Amino acid sequence: MTGNTPAPALAAALAAGTVVLDGGLSNQLESAGHDLGDELWSARLLAERPEAITEAHLAYYLAGASVAITASYQATFEGFARRGVDRPAAGRLLALSVRLAREAARRARDAGVERPLWVAASAGPYGAMLADGSEYRGRYGLGVAELERFHRPRLEALAAAAPDVLALETVPDTDEATALLRAVRGLGVPAWLSYTIDGPRTRAGQSLERAFALAADADEIIAVGVNCCAPGDAGPAVGLAAHVTGKPVVVYPNSGESWQPAARSWTGPATFTPAQVTSWRDGGARLIGGCCRVGPRSIASIARTLRTEPV
């Protein structure tokens, strides 16, 4: 696919085969020398170094990814307000996150990439805005209606920027999933729903079967799965998500290293292997990539392993 020919709808691509996601945006930015030790994480660079975000997306497209996930995971009206960014300016930064990924796709095509390229607008959980690790625990003390009111405005802002899909990602519990499923209704943009898990349960301890079932009848959801989890936990979750929902499965775990909050560092070996990727595909995964500590080299390996072809 060349020139300005639009990519087919992502849902159609998933029906036809497997699509490669990108890896961790934060580690690509950090490897380029950017300090993300901040409550806004990579979202801070939307205002300060937008070109760095475009370059990070481009690195993944050139490595073999067909979907770039935007730098809006931790971008919220509330989080920006704490930095003195007013609501109109925050809305513009949310929209900018989509435009930067589109620009990276344009540059990738100029560099000779012919396969379809898509943009997924990231919407992280409420806990990501708190920046205290609670996105890995959930149960914030808020009800579904309160969480829906939090998520809807930024989802509207992201949808207005016309991404190909909304990435409702790193969701730690079923209350937040329910809120997100309500918040995406009527936006006119498809979405995927991806939980962060610990073994066979959500981070908040709920049954994954119940968690996946919430999305089974949601027309807006084109894929269901897991991210930001141990690679070893991903395999069983892929099969369960496919069985419970009948939808394509999205999976993008961490490298397998462990995050140490006190030291703010990663420890232990990486356990993410191409053999796992093949088993995920065979189990029903149609969107496969990596999350924290998974860089362009690993994405290139995934693309080679899956032998993806242009749609």
From TrEMBL:
Gene3D superfamilies assigned to the protein according to its UniProt record, in alphabetical order: Homocysteine-binding-like domain
GO biological process: methionine biosynthetic process; methylation; S-methylmethionine cycle
Cofactor(s) this protein cannot do without: Zn(2+)
InterPro entries recorded: BHMT-like (IPR017226), HCY_dom (IPR003726), HCY_dom_sf (IPR036589), Hcy_S-methyltransferase (IPR051486)
Binding-site residues, Zn(2+): C228, C291, C292
PANTHER family linked: HOMOCYSTEINE S-METHYLTRANSFERASE-LIKE ISOFORM 1, ZGC:172121
Matching Pfam families: S-methyl_trans
Keywords noted in UniProt: Metal-binding, Methyltransferase, Transferase, Zinc
Designated name of the protein: Homocysteine S-methyltransferase
One MF term in the entry's GO annotations: zinc ion binding
UniProt domain Hcy-binding: residue ranges: 7-306
Taxonomic source organism: Streptomyces malaysiense
